[in-house]
């Protein structure tokens, strides 16, 4: 159940300020607050709750804290404490008077995110950007296109480490379920753990040793999976309920076993839809196209557009999709958001295929791709314009680095299914709101 508050009450924040102090109207949080359509967002928030039951948390408080979390790159626990200490942040969340009492428990934020899902945050993003466009803070002309990977917060996966982690989880579930069923199962967990530790402590690991250890861990895991499946059957006969979370994780473990066994038999290191994390089974390895210490990144790949200093998320997927194939979809999203087509499009060489060139020509949109065929004279005005726009393309690269360094988009930490999309959308939205506040 959700009960809206009376927002007409005059705020009493000045009551607690000593020496006739006043709040600064130019504070960044107060500026950003005026850019968010709170009424519409609260109305949508209300639709996620029934008419009965315990009253839900105030929608503006929850939305405000989630935005502040990503604008300050804080954890759930840290942002709740920070809001308790900061009057400007409390005013940003529409509190009527300053409160020193805990506003909510940090665990409530994860429950709210799971209830709302990514769909609500897409609406939150669209409604807010419409306000920025109506107030002419965003002046749409052309757009810059690029793609990047937003890494998830997980340790670098290895085949042996993943198999051992899966084995440890299954062994733990066997012990728990075996006690409920009344059956003791021999899992060989100590022997398996000793063998894995002996392998992991070696500084140099030959291919022969890795293959032998992986084969051994596969055998241990296959035995434990059969044992756990047998216990599940007995529990079903006895009427013992198994949590959905356990059943889902067991399916992931079985998929890991099948994939690793197939790669071991075929002596290959690649497989379709490869699972690299038990906690995040949707994460896929994506090979980077640039030089650096990390040849592979683990996280969703995003198609992004840059318009007048603002970065918009056009598409997010765990698979390594071809970004050049999404130009048409990005043009439609631009037209939906701004009500018109961009006057020009700037992107790197990978976007400049013949199909995209024909599309832009058909839509009468100027492009900054290097022309095909014989090189034109550098004194040509079109060539000078093209070089200028390609230099401007560095701005979108810089915005990626800024987002990853200052808005925690280098480590996605949400574990729910829609977590990566929620994290990326709120992170980019937080960066865009701070950009808008500087222009007011």
Helix content: 40-55%
* Whole-number mean pLDDT: 89
Rg value: 27 Å
Q: What is the 3D form?
A: globular
Q: Widest sheet: strand order?
A: 5-4-1-6-7
- Tell me, what is the CATH class of the largest domain? Alpha Beta
Output the helix-strand order: HHHHHHEHHHHEEEEHEHEHHH
CATH architecture of the largest domain: 2-Layer Sandwich
Uncertain segments are: none
The number of distinct β-strands equals 7
The proportion of strand residues reads 5-15%
Structural class: alpha/beta
Q: According to CATH, what is the topology of the largest domain?
A: Nucleotidyltransferase, domain 5
Main beta sheet: strand number and arrangement?
5 strands, mixed
From the N-terminal CA to the C-terminal CA, the straight-line distance is 37 Å
What is the count of structural domains? 3
Helix run count: 15
What do you see in this structure?
The chain is an alpha/beta fold and 440 residues long. It has three domains: 13-122, no CATH class; 139-154 and 285-419, Nucleotidyltransferase, domain 5 (2-Layer Sandwich), CATH 3.30.420; 159-266, no CATH class. Helices cover 52% and strands 8% of the residues. It contains 15 helices and seven strands. The chain has helices at residues 28-33, 38-46, 59-71, 76-85, 87-92, 107-134, 159-181, 189-200, 207-237, 244-266, 327-338, 354-362, 381-392, 394-406, 419-439; strands spanning 143-149, 285-287, 296-298, 301-307, 310-317, 344-346, 366-367. The strands form two sheets. The protein has a five-stranded mixed sheet with strand order 5-4-1-6-7, with helices on both faces. The chain has a two-stranded antiparallel sheet with strand order 2-3. Helix 12 links the parallel strand 6 and strand 7. The mean pLDDT is 89.
């Amino acid at each position: 159940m959700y009960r809206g508050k009376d927002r007409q009450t005059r705020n009493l924040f000045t009551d607690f300020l000593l020496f006739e102090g006043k709040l600064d109207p130019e504070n960044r949080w107060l500026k950003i607050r005026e850019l968010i359509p709170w009424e519409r967002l609260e109305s949508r928030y209300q639709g996620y709750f029934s008419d009965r039951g315990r009253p839900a948390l105030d929608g503006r408080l929850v939305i405000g804290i989630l935005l502040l979390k990503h604008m300050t790159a804080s954890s759930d626990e840290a942002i709740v404490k920070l809001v308790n200490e900061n009057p400007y942040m409390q005013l940003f969340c529409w509190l009527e008077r300053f409160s020193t009492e805990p506003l909510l428990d940090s665990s409530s934020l994860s429950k709210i995110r799971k209830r709302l899902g990514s769909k609500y945050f897409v609406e939150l993003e669209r409604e807010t950007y419409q306000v920025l466009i109506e107030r002419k803070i965003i002046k749409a002309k052309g757009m810059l296109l690029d793609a990047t990977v937003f890494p998830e917060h997980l340790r670098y996966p290895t085949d042996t480490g993943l198999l051992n982690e899966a084995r440890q989880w299954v062994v733990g579930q066997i012990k728990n379920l075996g006690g409920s069923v009344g059956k003791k199962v021999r899992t060989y967990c100590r022997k398996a753990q000793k063998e894995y530790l002996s392998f992991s402590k070696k500084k140099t690991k030959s291919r022969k040793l890795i293959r032998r250890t992986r084969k051994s861990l596969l055998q241990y895991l296959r035995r434990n999976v059969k044992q756990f499946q047998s216990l599940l059957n007995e529990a079903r006969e006895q009427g013992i309920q198994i949590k959905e979370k356990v059943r889902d994780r067991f399916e992931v473990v079985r998929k890991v076993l099948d994939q690793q066994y197939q790669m071991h038999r075929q002596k290959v290191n690649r497989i379709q839809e490869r699972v690299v994390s038990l906690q995040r089974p949707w994460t896929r390895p994506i090979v980077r196209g640039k030089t650096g210490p990390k040849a592979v990144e683990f996280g969703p790949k995003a198609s992004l557009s840059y318009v007048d200093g603002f970065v918009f998320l056009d598409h997010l997927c765990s698979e390594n999709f071809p970004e050049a194939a999404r130009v048409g979809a990005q043009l439609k999203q631009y037209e939906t958001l701004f009500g018109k087509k961009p006057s020009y499009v700037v992107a790197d060489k990978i976007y400049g295929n013949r199909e995209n060139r024909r599309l832009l020509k058909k839509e009468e949109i100027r492009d900054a791709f290097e022309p095909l065929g014989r090189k034109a004279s550098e004194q040509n005005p079109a060539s000078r314009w093209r070089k200028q726009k390609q230099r401007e393309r560095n701005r979108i690269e810089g915005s990626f680095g800024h987002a990853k360094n200052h808005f925690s988009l280098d480590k996605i930490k949400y574990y729910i299914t829609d977590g990566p999309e929620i994290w990326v959308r709120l992170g980019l939205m937080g960066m865009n709101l701070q950009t808008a506040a500087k222009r007011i």
